Amino acid sequence: MKHFFIIRLIAGLVFLFFGILHFVSPENFKHILQASNLPLADFNLIFVPIVEVVVGALLILGLYTRLIAIIGCITMAIAFYATITILHLDPSQLPDGMTEKPFSPPLIVPIIIFLMCLYVLIFGAGAWSIDKRKKKNPS
After folding, report:
1. Cα–Cα distance between 39 and 43 in angstroms, integer?
2. Greater pLDDT, 91 or 76
3. pLDDT, tens digit, for every residue of 80-126?
4. Which long-range CB contacts under 8 A does 68-76 form with residues at least 24 apart?
5. What is the pTM of this model?
6. Sign of CA dihedral 42, 43, 45, 46
7. Which of 68, 97, 109, 117 fits as disulfide partner to 58, beta carbons 3.0 to 4.6 Å?
8. Among positive and negative, which fits the CA dihedral 14, 77, 98, 101?
């Protein structure tokens, strides 16, 4: 079905956008990781943008779609946790060197992208995908 492509495309573009944004401007992302007390902040500062770009690109292409949708769901669940943590953070609880809460996307963003990835996981890549072409032409 063609509408699967639209859902996959939107989720992929959002992942790609945030992955590139976190590469280009890592300062705010670093503050998000620190303020939300996620472990291995320095490692995740490099790892998460790579995951976001790869997930975004593969969702757009429709390659390994269900596996990538699982990774997307996990990533968005962690983003949801980080956003909730930052929203409920008292300014007195900020890590050293931070004077204000870091900017994070509205809470609805990780929820919607999580649901889109879940939809792709359940229903598959759809008509316009490399997965569909590979299924038609097993060589």
Report:
1. 9
2. 76
3. 999 999 888 887 777 777 778 888 889 999 999 999 999 999 998 88
4. 69/117, 69/118, 69/120, 69/121, 70/117, 70/121, 72/11, 72/15, 72/113, 72/114, 72/117, 72/120, 73/114, 73/117, 73/118, 73/121, 75/15, 75/48, 75/51, 76/110, 76/111, 76/113, 76/114, 76/117
5. 0.89
6. positive
7. 68
8. positive
